[in-house]
Amino acid sequence: MPLAFAAATDTTIPVHVIEGDDLEARLAKLPDMAQKWAKSQGFTAALGQVVTVPDNAGQIAMGLVGYGTEVKRARGRFHIASVAAKLPKGTYELASGLSGLALEEAALAWLLSGYSYDRYSKPAKEGARLVAPEGIDAHRIETIATGEALTRDLINTPASDMGPDELEAAARALASEQAAAINVITGDDLLTSNFPMIHTVGRASTRAPRLLDLRWGDAGPQLTLVGKGVCFDTGGLNIKPGGSMGLMKKDMGGAATVLGLAHMIMGLGLSLRLRVLIPAVENGIDGNAFRPQDILTSRKGLTVEINNTDAEGRLVLADALTLSDEDDPDLVISMATLTGAARVAVGPDLSPFYTDSDDHADAIAQAAQRVADPVWRMPFHTPYEAMIEPGIADLDNAPKGGFAGSITAALFLRRFVESPYIHFDIYGWQPTTAPARPKGGVGMGARAILDALPRLLDL
Fold first, then answer.
1. Rounded to an integer, what is the distance from CA 73 to the centroid of its chain?
2. pLDDT bracket for residue 290 (50, 70, 90)
3. 314 assigned to active site
4. Distance between CA atoms of 37 and 56, rounded to whole angstroms?
5. Which residues lie closer than 8 Å to 266 by C-beta, 6 or more apart?
């Protein structure tokens, strides 16, 4: 089903969204037939409850949707998506009960309820379509929805069909669609171009490593997005156990998320210069795989002792972050499925992020609240710097002890950036189906960043 609003027709069905505390007053405003029908069907306005009211011809005259209480709604988001799934096929409009940010969230939720990943199965049947509500920016919401769908599709695609080649193809397709420029450095050319750690991590795979470099826009402040593109992570010679390897197709979730965010930025024509850098690799196992205790020299010249080949994401990001700094951007944001420690800290639903700027942190937190894209600030705790300094080299890619794993990974990355910097350690996966988020790949943090950009970049 297209993630776009439907055109209004003569048979468009009004939907009334009713809060539990306002049930009697709202029902009293409906025709007598609708009031009686709602009561006969036991409509209590419980969150997610749906009743369709027939007309004299037996067709649907209107829909009544329960919006519950504020306490119940606070335990989730995108509640209208579950409603859309319960309504019969047809064209609907949100006629009353929502306004402002709640209406925008509902409209996006309805569109996202139409997402399904059907590359390897029969397409889902078209369901309930929504007419763009009055008072919202329909183009913006459609652009956000399609950007989110791009992210989900990329993450959901198995590594057999989403290696560095295919990730490059997806970036090229986006560049072509949005009239952006793209340059790609592949294989041994990474060495001659001084991206040694990207090459080292990816060289054991039969699929050549590469660096994707997309640029768009010619005026305004420069935003550089850096996304971890590890298309599959075996763990390298520190091989993962089977249970930990099962979801590693999603280890390019940072790349998928920055491409989805780039689609939103370019599709909305924001007044900025955008650069997207993606180190795309597969962390494989072969005779030329990098080893524990190896010492690598990064693009920046910092040396890194390898204490775990399964901590490879920060290595490829380090070279890309060094490049990001070289043309003096106004802001660098990295996004990566970087550490299991982040999931232990905040679970699968929150996007932890790091920044040294209180103003940037406040902008993102407020935006996250507005657009229902939850985040949580984590500290660049400088006293932990000693944990990433092994003595034999400048940096340690996997400090021993297991403490503060997400923080030490963020501190490692910060060593390679001098520009204003924000780092997101995301999960990129919805473990159980929720409204507007089927089980599988999901964007995290992108909508909060998009909403915060005017403040982050003074647009």
1. 22
2. very high
3. yes
4. 12
5. 174, 178, 180, 216, 217, 274
